[in-house]
Automatic annotation (TrEMBL):
<dbReference type="InterPro" id="IPR000182">
    <property type="entry name" value="GNAT_dom"/>
</dbReference>
<dbReference type="Pfam" id="PF13527">
    <property type="entry name" value="Acetyltransf_9"/>
</dbReference>
<dbReference type="Pfam" id="PF13530">
    <property type="entry name" value="SCP2_2"/>
</dbReference>
<dbReference type="InterPro" id="IPR036527">
    <property type="entry name" value="SCP2_sterol-bd_dom_sf"/>
</dbReference>
<dbReference type="InterPro" id="IPR016181">
    <property type="entry name" value="Acyl_CoA_acyltransferase"/>
</dbReference>
<dbReference type="InterPro" id="IPR051554">
    <property type="entry name" value="Acetyltransferase_Eis"/>
</dbReference>
<feature type="domain" description="N-acetyltransferase">
    <location>
        <begin position="2"/>
        <end position="153"/>
    </location>
</feature>
<dbReference type="Pfam" id="PF17668">
    <property type="entry name" value="Acetyltransf_17"/>
</dbReference>
<dbReference type="InterPro" id="IPR041380">
    <property type="entry name" value="Acetyltransf_17"/>
</dbReference>
<dbReference type="InterPro" id="IPR025559">
    <property type="entry name" value="Eis_dom"/>
</dbReference>
<protein>
    <submittedName>
        <fullName>GNAT family N-acetyltransferase</fullName>
    </submittedName>
</protein>
């Protein structure tokens, strides 16, 4: 039997040994790097109640663990709690023994007991977590932009480098953006401190009417060992709360053309290519017949729904009055949840009556993506991911689950 509990400070070094072996591609297996991680996580375990390490024990031996997070998210202009999990690691000697399954089951159940409505993670393998009921979120798009492809008419004179003294203003700037964008996790103060104290990152900000309106953090990445003039500018985070802010940041980037080969930007904004005067990336590849490669895309953050009543109760919908029964098949937890929704006078309510002239069946992963807004109902129907009592109900159900935008998440964990 597996015991899962919060790690003591003395157990963290053993967990770091497991993590170092599990993440060989990103973890340095050196004494100094391990010592830094141990000290960092001991400090976190003692002083940060929103990030905690948990371990899996069998017969008193630590054989795996994970890092649990507590977030707040803008969900359709409502602030809701989100549980996050990262750094899931299993001892090399205990692979294929369902340790990760036990860890994720604990993560799901404890958040369910705490009435946390949404769970989130970044998958090491999407297929692994899809089977656990986590649905795909919005894809990430990576652009390699020529500086001259950006606008130059922004007010660059209102941009300056910022430091720790602007921490609160940067914090407010980010959370203002988050309050307007579905899916965004609100920034926590330690995250902003970590950004400002990273010696490898530069942070610039645009001021509008003497208020910090937009900012960008970036690094320079050398492209050649023999040509020191060949560098890319890599944007780590770009937040803008006005068109003037975006134009000013563009103007700054455009002016770096003498020093920068390409600007690398990761964004979940699917419309971003409209910003660019030349959207082509660095590959010069073409997709038949005449489509120029503009960016690469990847599947990343995944979500699982826990307490949907917090998300759906009272939601305004453009749908006719109706009753809907939804059967959500959860293969991982080996159960089927039955939800009853009623639309009355343009509002959605959770119903306790087992009735529904419209009946819907789908799996937990698809349901989670649907409720996050990363896929719409009609698409799930076209793909055969959902069964309904009659095809004529597709339009009604699409209206019920319609969202203004896909979720965007800029928080890494």
């Amino acid at each position: 039997m597996t015991e899962i509990r919060k790690l003591t400070l003395e157990e963290i070094s053993s967990f770091i040994d497991i993590v170092t072996n599990a993440y060989t591609g990103i973890m340095e297996n050196t004494k100094d790097s391990k010592e830094r991680l141990i000290n960092y996580y001991k400090d976190t375990q003692e002083n940060n109640n929103t990030v905690q390490l948990y371990g899996a024990f069998r017969n008193g031996k630590l054989i795996g663990g994970m890092r649990l997070h507590s977030f707040e998210m803008n969900y359709e202009n409502k602030k809701v709690k989100v549980g996050g999990v990262g750094l899931v690691a299993v001892d090399l000697l205990h692979k294929k023994e369902k340790v990760a399954k036990d860890l994720i089951t604990y993560f799901i159940k404890t958040n369910e007991e705490a009435n946390i409505p949404i769970l989130a993670l970044y998958p090491f393998r999407p297929d692994f977590y899809l089977k656990m009921g986590f649905g795909y979120g919005t894809k990430m798009n990576q652009y390699h932009i020529l500086p001259d492809a950006l606008a130059s008419e922004g007010k660059k004179e209102h941009i300056r480098f910022v430091g720790n003294e602007e921490s609160e203003q940067l914090f407010n700037c980010f959370n203002t953006f988050a309050s307007r964008q579905h899916g965004m996790m609100y920034k926590q103060s330690f995250e902003m401190n970590r950004l400002l104290n990273d010696p490898g990152k530069r942070v610039i900000a645009f001021y509008k009417d003497q208020v910090l309106d937009s900012y960008m953090s970036f690094t320079f990445k050398k492209m050649s060992d023999t040509n020191f003039c060949l560098n890319n500018l890599v944007i780590d985070e770009m937040i803008y709360n006005s068109p003037e802010g975006l134009l000013a940041l563009q103007s700054f980037l455009q002016s770096q053309g003498d020093q920068v080969n390409r600007i690398v930007l990761n964004t979940q904004d699917e419309s971003f290519y409209h910003v660019l005067q030349d959207p082509r990336n660095h590959t010069n590849e073409m997709i038949p017949s005449v489509y120029h490669e503009s960016h690469t895309s990847g599947v990343g953050i995944m979500y699982r729904m826990n307490d949907v009543s917090q998300l759906l109760e009272g939601k305004y919908v453009e749908a006719q009055a109706c009753n809907v029964k939804i059967s959500v098949i959860d293969m991982f937890m080996k159960e089927t949840q039955e939800l009853y929704l009623s639309v009355k006078e343009g509002q959605l309510f959770m119903s306790k009556h087992e009735e529904g002239e419209i009946q819907v069946t789908l799996d937990m992963a698809s349901f989670s993506s649907l409720l996050m807004g990363s896929v719409d109902f009609s698409a799930l129907y076209r793909y055969g991911k959902v069964q309904i009592s009659a095809p004529l109900h597709v339009e009604v159900l699409s209206s019920i689950f319609k969202m203004d935008s896909k979720p965007i998440c800029m928080t890494l964990f």
